[in-house]
Amino acid sequence: MQPAMNALSALIAAVCGAAIGTLFTVAHRAVAPFLGIEVPYGIVLGLASVIAFLVAMRLLWETRWPAVGGALGVIGAVAVLTFAGAGGSVVVAADGFGWTWLVAAPLAAAVVVAWPRRRVRSSPEGTEADDTMDGPGTLGHEPAEER
């Protein structure tokens, strides 16, 4: 991929990451009662969305730059919305929900970006994929029905 395309992909991913970060920073406090306990589905859905988005960035592009851009967008949105607004109101309160979101979202983004790419094993020269699917010890021998 060319450097200009890397930069453009990272910029678009950063905008998408900022949108995801903003949406779930606002919604991170959402809870629902389930069997008498309040389940923090805002944090759960937020973390799942951040992780899924960044994993998709890692899988769709050969380079890390779109994932880095997306992670910076998420982290930037979370950081900006952490500060008090003009009227003194806060989106991320200094409680368990706020601290969990403030630490977990950037940490999840950093882990996904830093995770090493899975290496693809190359097959030995001259072997076909079908040859390796016959079972153990049959490579280069007669087919099973002729034995």
Plain-language structure description:
There is one protein chain. With 147 residues, the chain is mostly helical. It has one domain. Helix content is 56%, strand content 4%. The protein has 4 helices and 2 strands; from the N terminus they run H-E-E-H-H-H. A two-stranded antiparallel sheet has the order 1-2. Strand 1 and strand 2 (37-39) form a beta hairpin. Helix 1 packs antiparallel against helix 2 and helix 1 (3-27) packs parallel to helix 3. The longest helix has 25 residues, at 3-27. The radius of gyration is 23 Å and the shape is globular. The protein starts with a helix and ends in a 33-residue tail after the last helix.
Percent range of helical residues: 55-70%
Shape: globular
Mean pLDDT: 84
Spatial order of the strands forming the largest sheet: 1-2
Summed up, the domain count is 1
How far apart the termini lie comes to 50 Å
Could you state the order of secondary-structure elements as H and E? HEEHHH
Count of individual helical segments = 4
Tally of strands = 2
Low-confidence stretches: none
Q: What structural category arises from helix and sheet content?
A: mainly alpha
What would you report as the Rg, rounded to the nearest angstrom?
Answer: 23 Å
Strand content: under 5%
Most strands sheet: 2 strands, antiparallel
